[in-house]
Amino acid sequence: MKYLIIGLGNPGSKYERTRHNIGFLVLDEFAKEHKAEFELDRHAEVARAKFKGRSIILVKPTTFMNLSGKAVNYWMQQEKIPIENILVISDDLALPFGTLRMKGKGSDGGHNGYKDIQATLNTPVYARLRFGIGSEFNKGNQSDYVLGEWDSKEKEALGERIAKANEFIKGFTTIGLNRTMSNWNGK
Q1: Which of 20, 34, 43, 111 is catalytic?
Q2: Which residues, including other chains, have CB under 8 Å from residue 10's CB and lie 6 or more apart?
Q3: Which of 8, 48, 100, 171 could form a disulfide with 90 if both were Cys (CB 3.0 to 4.6 A apart)?
């Protein structure tokens, strides 16, 4: 069984340690844990991992966030992975920092990455894991906040929350979406 796990973020060192790039950070840790190396490929950096007999293709789009659909669609087609075997990981302003929430479908929630993926795939029905980054910013400063680096308190908890996000990936690929959601959502 093959799975496509997409971490959303923006390419380049300028964005590397920003809240908006949590999808990349989660995949970096998953790849490290499973001794997988990212290589630059078409529309993305791609790594291949194995977990409990499953092939897991990790994709970090090299398009900017608002053009993520291009990479998702390309790798789904290239690897012949059905939509029920894809999981997209992103930041979420609506959730408190570190809160993880998995869903099997939904609106884009104002997230430009999801907006482009849904427009490209022509459906809102695909699994997503939202990683809460909180909303500790003044009105009008949303962009500065999501493109800002983690504060010291967040940095302290980040490793543990990323490890928990990787448990969601493992669950998604072994016990499926519904059981993973009921076992771990909100924890």
Answers
A1: 20
A2: 18, 20, 21, 64, 65, 147
A3: 8
Does 34 score more than 90 pLDDT?
A: yes
Sequence-ordered strand ranges (E) for the chain: 2-7, 39-41, 44-51, 54-61, 86-92, 100-103, 127-132
Can you read off the two tokens belonging to residue 177? 């979406």
Please provide the average confidence, as pLDDT, over all residues in the chain. Answer: 94
Look at residues 76, 79, 42 and name the one whose alpha carbon lies nearest to residue 61: 42
Domain of 77 in residue numbering reads as 2-184
| Mean pLDDT for the stretch of residues 3-13 | 96
Euclidean distance between CA atoms 58 and 37, whole angstroms: 10
What CATH number should be reported for the domain holding residue 105?
3.40.50.1470
CA-wise closest residue to 21 among 40, 45, 48, 39? 45
The stretch 147-175 carries a mean pLDDT of 96
Contact 104, 177 (CB under 8 A): yes
Tally of domains in the chain: 1
Answer yes or no: 43 catalytic. no
d(CA 145, CA 128) in angstroms, rounded, equals 22
Q: Are 55 and 5 contacting, i.e. CB atoms less than 8 angstroms apart?
A: no
- 46, 59 in Cβ contact below 8 A? yes
Is the pLDDT assigned to residue 187 strictly greater than 80? no
